Amino acid sequence: MHWHLPAVTISALLGIPFPFASIGHVNPQLYALAAGTWNPESSEENKCHHKSNLRGWMQSYLDVLCINAWQVKRFIDVYSASSVIGFSSEDISRIGHMYTLAADSRSLNIKDSLYGNETQFPVLKRQIDAYFALLQSVADLARSKWTEFDLRMMAVGFGVMLTSLVIHYVAIKRAYDIYRASFPTLGNSGISSGLVLAIFVVAVRACSFLSNSYILEEGKVAIFLLATTGIANIRHSIMKMKMAFEVVLLLKLISVLRFSIDLGPAKQGIGSAGTLNSDYEGHLSVYMAEIVPMLALFLLAYLLYKTTQNSSCWGISKCVILGSILSYVLIAIYWVIECKKLNLPPELQSVGKSRIPQTIYGIGLGQLVLLTLDQLFSVEKTTDSKGRVFVKTVAMLSAWSSTVIILLGKQGPTIALASIIGGWCIMTLQSLEGNEAKDGTSPVLTFNPLSVTQWSLFAVCLFFCTGHWCAFDGLRYGAAFIGFDEFILIRQAILLTIDTFGFSHILPIFGLPVLLGNNPFSQYNLEKQSVFLKLSFVYLMYGLIMATSVTFTIICVTIHRRHLMVWGLFAPKFVFDVVGLVLTDALICMASLYYF
Question: pLDDT for 293-349, tens place per residue?
Fold first, then answer.
């Protein structure tokens, strides 16, 4: 037999004071066994025997419960007075009334004993039951406040999520009908294999949240499902005899991401040398850790510079991209100043570690302001809607990227390159599955949910590859103080949010229009409406995927609300998913205002 011994029971048996913060009650069976008076069968069969011993035990146990109740009542009063989210006044009043009744009954018992009258067994039992009811009421109240979710509010939240799923579906259906009515020359897509696979993958990932084992390995599950979609791309590539390089590159990238997830917390300290057996290997790892991020950063700057050579890149967008290149140079200087092997003067290190990050934050904020003003007041000077959206996407991503990279540390540029490669592969491979126009001339992609599903899974993989996980100890609190020494709640909260959700939410959502890059709209000289309808598809589908995952997270938390790991595993997962969903909805709204 396994006993769960409350602290108050052990204290009563040892004769030591009760713990102040305990709300348990003294176990009667164990207390009676210690006194040698617990024998229910003999007390029922032989009521005339051991009456004095039984009365003595009940009297002693009543005294212990009285002290137990006083300690619990005192703790509840102190907790409610000092805690921001203490118990309500109604609950405190009810507990106080129960305690008063039990204490008054106990006072009458004490008066009888002073006059030499023996308290009858029914009276002792009623007094014990009164204290038991008080202690049980306090325990139930504390359990409902501290260790249980509000089922009514959970039902409301679950209803809201179901309504959201229905609204997403209706909006996607409506956008598809408008698309078909606007472009009747396109063939009927029907239910494609990509749609079936996308639904299957989203359903499998959502159902995996019902198991604590899969939640612990959420990043690996996302990698597995992304690789599954990559294998489906291999099938289409073999059937159509094209894009084998893109498929192989995507699968190799997925393999690299899979092994990087295993690094876990070690990624937060990337850039520092480990303890190796060989000094040569140790020095080589240090140099590689310093050089590789620099090379990746310069490669990112080169890619942005090539984008400025695009004919559609002009005006504000070009200035924003050039500002990001300047921020990349400042990041490289910041890392050089941080390098301890250079032995730079402490004054220079102190100024560089604070001023350079603040300058990068200021440049990023200025870039976002410029893009907002450009969207509000600029006049469209090009008829190439797809090219214009692409340039606006690159400008927005570059404006966010410098802040995200400096917060993430020296792993930032490599993760950014991985996201570019993965995004390019997903964008290119989405044309493997297409539908024929009615004249049979060429495939036209009207609805490809598989690419959006891959984009969503890729974003989840990036979250875990950057050293984060769905727990409060998975937050990189030090990132909130890069460039600052003092703590200001709103400022540090914004920086911590950007570090946590930069590569998994902010950049992927603003980068979703990249999926238009390989769309053959230009072959048909389609109008601006076609681009915006496609964007509507992409954002509605992405929101539907996120809402589906959060809905199943709510179901998981509801089922496991009494689980031992509810506060260590399920509740943090719920918090991260809900915050991610709110952030996703907000970013989709901002992206819609920016691109549409």
Answer: 899 999 999 998 888 776 566 778 889 999 999 999 999 999 888 877 677 777 777
CA-to-CA distance for 73 and 222, rounded, in angstroms?
49
Contact (CB, 8 A) for 537 and 172: yes
Distance CA 493, CA 172 (A): 34
Which residues face 205 on adjacent strands? none
Token code pair at residue 298: 């310069």
In whole angstroms, give the CA distance from residue 142 to residue 80: 11
Rounded Cα distance between 334 and 351, Å, is: 10
C-alpha to C-alpha distance for 262 and 256, rounded to whole angstroms: 10
Q: pTM for the whole thing?
A: 0.77
**Residue indicated by tokens 């007075």:** 81
Cβ atoms of residues 280 and 397 within 8 Å: no
**For 130-158, what is each residue's pLDDT tens digit?**
888 888 888 888 777 776 666 788 888 89
- Say how far residue 333 (Cα) sits from the centre of its chain: 32
Rg value, the chain, Cα: 32
**What count of residues does the chain have?**
596
Helix, strand, or coil (residue 476): coil
> Rounded CA gap, 254 and 195, in Å?
22
Nearest to 396 by CA among 351, 425, 364: 364
How does 49-75 read in b/e, with b if 16+ C-beta sit within 10 Å?
A: eeeeebbebbbebbebbbebbebbbeb
12/27 Cα distance (integer angstroms): 9
Which amino acid appears at position 35 of this protein?
Answer: A
Choose the most confident range, by mean pLDDT, from 122-136, 253-267, 462-476.
462-476
Which residues are paired to 437 by β-bridges? Answer: 186
For 305, how many CA atoms within 13 A lie in the half-sphere containing its CB?
10
Report whether 315 contacts 378 (CB < 8 A): yes
Rounded CA separation 62/105 (Å): 11
Burial 125-138 (b: 16+ CB within 10 A, else e): eebbebbeebbeeb
Q: Which two tokens stand for residue 34?
A: 């210690």
Average pLDDT for residues 39-58, to the nearest whole number?
A: 56
The identity of residue 285, as a single letter, is S
Q: Report the SS3 class of residue 186.
A: strand
The sign of the torsion formed by the CA atoms of 169, 175, 181, 184 equals negative
* Residues 75, 394: Cα–Cα separation, whole Å: 58
HEC string of 404-449?
HHHHHCCCHHHHHHHHHHHHHHHHHHHHHCCEEECCCCCEECCCCH
